[in-house]
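Structure ticket #2291
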Amino acid sequence: MESRGVPWLPAFVVTVLSASGSALAANSNYCNGPLVSVLPPTSFEGSSTSSSSQSSHYAKLNRRDGGGGWTPGHTDTQHWLQVDLRERVEVTSVATQGRYSSSDWVTSYMLLFSDAGRTWKQYRQEDNIGTFYGNTDADSVVHHKLSHPIRTRFLRFVPLDWSPTGWVGLRVEVYGCAYKSDVADFDGRSSLLYRFNQKSMSTVKDVISLKFKSQKPDGVLVHGEGQRGDYITLELHRGTLALHLNLDDAKLHPSSGHTSVMLGSLLDDQHWHSVLIERFNKQINLTVDRLTHHVRTKGADDSLEVDYELSFGGIPLPGKPGTFLRKNFHGCIENLYYNGVNVIDLAKRRKPQIYSGNVTFACSEPQLVSTTFLSSSSSFLKVPVEPLMEGLSVYFQFRTWNHEALLFSATLAQEPERLVLLLINGQLRLTHHQLIFVRQSLSDGQWHSITISLRGLQVSLTLDSEPTSTLELRDSVDPGSSIFFGGCPSTLSSQSCRNPTMAFQGCMRSITINNQPMNLLHVQQGLLGNYSKLQFDICGIRDRCLPNFCEHDSQCSQSWSTFYCDCSGTGYTGATCHNSIFEPSCEAHRQTGSASGYFSIDPDGSGPLKSTLVYCNMTEDKVWTVVKHSSSGAMSVQGSTLQQPHVARFNYSASPEQLRILVGRSEHCQQEVAYRCRKSRLFNTWDGNPLAWWLDRSGEKRTYWGGFLPGVQQCSCSLEENCIDMNYFCNCDADRHSWENDTGLLSYKDHLPLTEIVIGDTNRTGSEAVYTVSSLQCYGDRFLWNSASFYQESSYLHFPTFQAELSADISFYFKTTATSGVFLENLGAKDFIRVELSTPSAVTFIFDVGNGPVVLTVKSPLPLNDKQWHFVRAERTLKEASLQVDRLPLRFMEAPSEGHYRLQLSGQLFIGGTASRQRSFLGCIRALSMNGLTLDLEERAKMTPGVSSGCPGHCSSHNRLCHNWGKCIEKSSGYECDCTHSAYGGPHCKTEVSVSFESGSSVTYTFQEPFSVMRNKSRQSSAIFAQSSKSRESIAFSFLTNQAPAMLLTVSTYHQQYMAVILSLNGSLQIWYQLNREKRPDVFIPHPYGLANGQLHRVQIHREGKDIVVIMKSSAFIGRAGVDEEVLQAGSRGFVGCLSSVQFNHLAPLKAAILNRGSSLISVLGNLVESNCGALADKSSSHSLTDDRGKERLKNAAQTDSAVIGGLVAAVVLVTLCMVAVMTRFLYRHRHERSQQMAPVKEKDQPPLPSRLEHGFHAELDLRTAVAARDSRKEYFI
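Resolution: structure written out below.
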């Protein structure tokens, strides 16, 4: 720690150079010397050797003697080549060859490293790539520079694939340099004390750097504290590094100064991890390995005051205040530097300022051997058991992320009886005939210990240090001859072992049977037991949530092979919570058919800003967006001077950045300042200084009070030339005793909104000012129709590089008569992204992140070059990629769990063409949005030859001609509105389509043959937490009734699944979802109050996967699981009243029933009367429900990608009278066999695009009860 009088820079430089000297060398040209060529033969070891001339010591690069390299035996199933570098060195690169002049070489391999030839760790490159590509012939050299150097003694090359015409052959070289370090070993009871030369050290700057490897998940690494209450503690807690800091005096600030930072995961893996702490005043940078977290301390003070000493490895004296960890560190610390001081070096030299308590200076290596179970379907370990008279005892440790697994299965002498230990929903279940249930989540990646004992009539289970659970048996049982860990063989003919759930994926160690430790290395060598899909002497667990790739503050969870994002309460959806569920503007809400009301909008879409609540005022010719602030009433001001002015600040319902984007997106914005005065001037001073002013959104002082263009010291009356005294620019400046008015309309967008107003001339007798600042009001969406026309070959627009490293969403409209053309393209050194019209009826999305091109194509049954507008949305995230064209089925692929994932682009973004100026697009593109940013095509087109701003045609107008999802169709002499997919009718799709239902009447609309959900069964992956992210529907309708209970709408599928919207007995609206036949239905109550009140109510429902968004007007939104009685009751009563404008995805079933009564798809029962009840009610007593926005999560949803409602829908039923027998079961025969639903790319039916729904109140239901297989539905791109 640095004292205040010592310069900061020298200590900092010493620390960085001393702690990172090897790293600096590794990044230079000085750490690239060959390390293998000088090694003796004893440094090489192989898993096996095919012959003495092909033994491991011949595996040096370019060596030709002997057999020209190493080749393992042909019966060797786990081959590896190991190199002992004789001491720990720094490795910066590796190189491989095949066996000299042969057909044997390795095409891909893993690289493992270890300090002692035990407890290996897999080296991973950038993007967590764990595989190195190898050779394509015997003699060429393939060189790999490591993205980050490693310090190790042992390297192991593990071949994964090899020559298709030969066998494994390998020659290697390793490059690097010497590595020196100071190491201290802590046994869990030892510590180092660094004592100061003075009683107390107070610092404002500190740097602490070290490396550690730990045998335990908990332990203190660094601790120091002062008598006034300051402290610093660096500790391991459950394998995560925690830094606790307090800079405040505890007496003056008892609790305000405590700051904690958590970083890292799985740090108890017995491998080295680097730590760097940098503090300057309140700013702290904590770096663990290559992850850095920046934080600012709380409290008032900047300095850290520590008394007497700092301790490393533990706290030597018990009961000291300010400590956070209960255990000392158990492991090794290397290169420990504290403000430039090499603490371990001082301890080794026995310097007096260091006290060494039971610390040794050589790192002891643990003897634990772990094994990794790799497959969720076929991994197992079978070991024999010597029968004992006293029964059976088993002990082992495990760690996993998976929630479902078979951990242990023991055959009993009384076959087919078994003793089985399962992991179900992350909790332990030990079963024989009865059940021991341990309520604890064990799928947390931590090591857990299990002890099972079978003695006579009693079976006991002990988990970690918890109390033992006991199961009493009815009959005495004896153990059989074998035990299975992790799974069972799939080829086992008897019933002695079965996989009732997934096989175990994770790590096990310390397996002990009847008090005898099991030698896992003997199992690997084939000397003991049997196994499948295991990896020995390594624990391959990874934390896939570090770093967290879930966007917008969503929660990350994981299985062994992938991660999942919980978007609940975020306002976003998708596999990584990338897409906003909200419309970008009020103008977009009008296009969905919404009336005036409060709506959440997200102007930057998938960008970083959250949504904001605004009022959308839908007038006949304009849509106004109204943003309110905190001071809406009139404010009277008296007694203010320039020295003590009246100051009022305005806090808006949106953040400053949200306001900036909203204003920039709008065509026009305005804000009225109503200002009345008497004897209160604005500008009339002898020195010209203003007496009143306001601050714009940037905090800049403004002195104009009206108009579009900003002026200097002027009011509206001067612009209109009607001031009461033309000698002044403002009415108030006439300084009269009468009330005057200087109300003005501010409309210069770059200055809006007004954030503060200052008034300084109301202190004279009779002086007073009264002002009112209106809400910010904007209209128009200048990006919604922002377009450009490409009319020359090789013409294009170019923009800066598209920043889309981890996720990309692209949406736009186009119209053309051309047969093909590239909409957009961006290239990198190797990666690229492109969207194009590949044929007259197909759009293709293609990109490459380093794993090879990924191609998604949507083919239309009708030509797309029909000179009509078509919508395209392409998306790529770490989890999946998708392509949507109009309302055609969505095409999507799931990303591989391993492989490159960063899209690295470097060139310019080309719109309407390519860098090669070939295959240019001819036609119009509009509303091009990329990652939430809409490109200004019109502005760029003004300066580009071959491209013009705007797009000709009636359907390119800013004034929307067709409403409520009606499609504008260009005609030679005008246009017409196609209302086929709209629930409305009339020439502009604005006429309500309503039906009055009488008792006994109903409408049933049966879908045509649905699109099949295509799957790929060639690749398997974990189904844990698999989300049905592509199953979705959007529903909207209005209703009017005085009857409750009532059935409003039901949707049923061939899979005996259903969705129902009902009014319950008390008139509350309820939405029922039965998506998993094995579980109870989910029930959502967005409006708990009576709606059977004779008023017209509008309801909008949007479901995507397990997320449901409902637009309602209420303050409560409830989700619960229930049974079907209420649905049956509502169905039995039917519905009497008015239903209007019913929309289901892209279908309008109620309108279809009226217009196509003879259709075989439509069944009408009872008396059905078309009416205008919806329109009449809307004019007289309409009750808008768009104030309430709720979002819920389906709790018991089947986790499958079948198009539950959207793709495999059987019928939409508008029910008035439904027989109880019909409502009891929705039983339909599944028309398609599972094998007919396999294809390389998945398809889904989609709701109208680009619609998103409202959101407001968020409540979360636990999804983890839902478990289903998705393996066969996975699609990978490679």
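Closing remark: The mean pLDDT is 82.
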